[in-house]
Specification:
Elements (H helix, E strand, L loop, with lengths): L1 H6 L29 H8 L4 H11 L11 H15 L8
């Protein structure tokens, strides 16, 4: 999650460089009874893993493998992510 925080807004063209671009997208959306090992291995060796994870957390996307994490892992991260990245409320005048 720390890499995602660092990479969050620094690379807006990250998708074009993802290792996932060369693989069937279904690889990253295994059925609940199927292992996600292939997708996780691809993601963890990807140069844009942090940006990808940051995007998924910003979107609240809990489907598929993003940034080397499973939906379950991201659900666990979302509360902390949102607390860290929510805009400050504007004071009323």
């Amino acid at each position: 999650m720390l890499k995602a925080q660092r990479d969050r807004l620094s690379d807006l063209a990250w998708r074009a460089r993802g290792r996932c671009q060369t693989v069937d997208p279904e690889t990253f959306f295994p059925a609940p009874s199927e292992p996600a090992d292939v997708a996780l291995a691809l993601c963890r060796a990807c140069d844009v893993q942090g940006s990808c994870l940051a995007w998924a957390l910003d979107q609240g996307d809990c489907n598929g493998v993003w940034g080397g994490t499973t939906p379950r892992e991201r659900r666990a991260m979302l509360v902390a992510w949102r607390l860290e990245h929510e805009p400050e409320p504007t004071p009323a005048h």
